[in-house]
Amino acid sequence: MRSLAWLFMLAGIAATKSLVSQQPLAAPPRPNVIFILTDDQDAHLNSLDYMPHVKKHLLNKGTHYRSHYCTTSVCCPSRVTLWTGKLAHNTNVTDVNPPYGGPKQRISQVHITRVQRELPSCVAAGSAVNTYYTGKLFNVHTVDNYNAPFPAGFTGHDFLLDPFAYDYLNSTFQRDREPPRSYEGEYSTDVLAQKAYRLLDEAVAAQKPFFLTVAPIAPHCNVFMNGTGLDDNPVFSFSAPIPAKRHEHLFPDIQVPRTPSFNPEYPSGANWIKTLKRQNNTNVEYNDQFYRTRLRALQAVDELVDGIFTRLHQYNLLENTYIVYSSDNGYHIGQHRLQPGKSCGYEEDINVPLIVGGPGIAENASTDIVTTHTDLAPTFLQLLDIPLRDDFDGDPIPLTPGQIEAAQDERQEHVTVEYWGFAAGEGIYDFDLSAYNNTYKALRIKGKGYNLYYSVWCNNEHELYDMTSDPHQLHNLLSTDTTDIEPTPHIILNNPLSKVVPRIDSLLFVLKSCKGQVCIKPWRALHPGGDVTTLKDALHARYDNFYEVEQTTQVRFEECARGYLLKAEGPQFDVHDENGGNGFVRDGLAWDTWV
């Protein structure tokens, strides 16, 4: 069997050909995991509806986690969180460019070494599991620094490199210890597919459990880069995604879903978002075309998914392989009058696809239990039977029907959302410069009888949306604009906002600087006795004095900073760890002073 698998690998079998029949491979002691990670794919613009192979292989055969969230809605911070199981305030990778980006773009070699030391812990287990990766890893992983140092933790890799990572027709990849190779004129996702199939063949030939990540750039916009984020004056030109030639004709009349938040007649939101002008017809037509190109660009990803499942079937590995499909962050086009992009805390940007299929996973199922990107690294380790790290900010995701059922009462109800700095528009219509102050802390919380989004911006504006009655986040319950005030007091869980807001602000106060188990069970930091585990518990009248009188410190910022600077972050929640040390208050102005 080993020699037969080896022959298949050497043959370089094309994506459209079928493998000849073969003897089933012996099941390894651990299962395999394949992680497909798209770039900027939405959960609220219906993109999954246009991916028939994802529907056939994953949605129909797996479990769809409809309440899965990223915690920082831009690629590098989100991807570092995903691989380390830690929130961005615990990695200090908070941007895509220096001085706050990561990890390749960080100037500090200490930081590069730290992140790369943590990365393999989330995807490898020494010699027990082989690990493979192809596609986008991080921004500013370039043709000049790809080997300084090589990313750690992989048996085999074939990475996209800047400044060509987002150029659909001019990509550059770098394989293992080889020099970079340009694929000018070839379609990036098709090149990636062949690399993914080769790595899968290699993984099978090795006859060991494997973890394979496949990370296409679609449906991210096309970016021409004259330089990289490491250069003094790089020039980036953003345009709509480019589909493969065979898909250019598809979806000619499709439009961005006309939900109530799409280009609304009246402004919504807070901070700079509330100042945006309504888009004119020309702008809307451009954004509809932008949307169509995103759907077209995803078709090659859909074919890639089909190719992976075809090979798993032919290798007789479907019964022993978990397939996880997700995206680094969500996306908006026109919601709240926003131009195409991400970086906001609204539902379109933070709620992202997550679908899991494999042995023991319920078929054609969906769930609304709350999960986040901090939970993916623990989930991967658990699937691979690798001990979890003590410092994860997330928990393994319930996968089986029994686990999901138990999670209805036991699972965390909250998502920590945080962002620092610039929010970039990616179409031909740019944001104004007020988007530089796109720094905020936010809380997404969902439980029985409540579904809320709460945020504090760096200018200390507050937002609160009851997403049961206002799912499109059009009416800020904490707006100071008299035209927004409801004629009757708003009630949540039979309580007025005057009781609800102090509870959720205290919860966010804990989460904005939490570490480890405190991020997973933040109510315990406020109620060490364990008698409060949900917002509903905290709203009991016996805690009114604690929240409305004793808790005088609220979430606030001292200034709007582009990165995680403690002098700008305002007061930090103070809790002592079991060794008597201070668990959260740090004595420095920036992460690099205390790493």
Automatic annotation (TrEMBL):
InterPro entries, A to Z: Alkaline_phosphatase_core_sf, Arylsulfatase, Sulfatase_CS, Sulfatase_N
What reaction does this catalyse?
an aryl sulfate + H2O = a phenol + sulfate + H(+)
CDD domains per UniProt: G6S
Q: Which residues carry this modification: 3-oxoalanine (Cys)?
A: 75
> What does the record give as EC number?
3.1.6.1
Q: Which residues form the Sulfatase N-terminal domain?
A: 31-386
Modification note: The conversion to 3-oxoalanine (also known as C-formylglycine, FGly), of a serine or cysteine residue in prokaryotes and of a cysteine residue in eukaryotes, is critical for catalytic activity.
What does the UniProt keyword field contain? Glycoprotein, Hydrolase, Signal
User: Under the GO molecular function aspect, what terms does this record hold?
Assistant: arylsulfatase activity; glycosaminoglycan binding; N-acetylglucosamine-6-sulfatase activity
Q: Which residues form the signal peptide?
A: 1-16
Gene Ontology terms: biological process: phenol-containing compound metabolic process
Which PANTHER family does the UniProt entry name for this protein?
A: N-ACETYLGLUCOSAMINE-6-SULFATASE FAMILY MEMBER, SD21168P
The UniProt family comment states: Belongs to the sulfatase family.
What name has this protein been given in UniProt?
Arylsulfatase
